[in-house]
Amino acid sequence: xxxxxxxxxxxxxxxxxxxTSLNKAARCxxxxxxxxxxxxxxxxxVPHKIKNLKRISRIVILPDYQGIGIGTQVVDFFGEYYKKxxxxxxxxxxxxxxxxxxxxxxxWRMSRYGYVSQHSNKTWKVRKVKxxxxxxx
Length: 137
Known about the structure:
Blueprint: E1 2-3, H1 9-12, E2 27-33, E3 36-46, E4 53-61, H2 70-84, E5 88-93, H3 96-103, E6 108-119, E7 126-136
Parallel strand pairs: 4-5
Antiparallel strand pairs: 1-2, 2-3, 3-4, 5-7, 6-7
């Protein structure tokens, strides 16, 4: 895993379940299998009443590499990394596999769970989506 250029998002945005946008302020990281990029993570600093809060805004693992725990390892790595730097790290997701994984992971605490309204950038339709928020302990 290493920092990567913002432009790498182009390779991953079509696989993101929510939308294809990415905040320009995001710190971007690539996950690699040898020299092939197989995953992408974007992290933002969040102005919040909780001081020193960072948020995983995007995490995408290519379909051929999904389901083997890479995403969980990545969020655990960044949780520990930012904790050592004095930050708190959060993630909000509607991906069922990530919710299941983090719910049973002792390193993460669920901070919220329920439905939110989301709109699609493609259709502009509003839909109710079940999401869960987690904070690294």
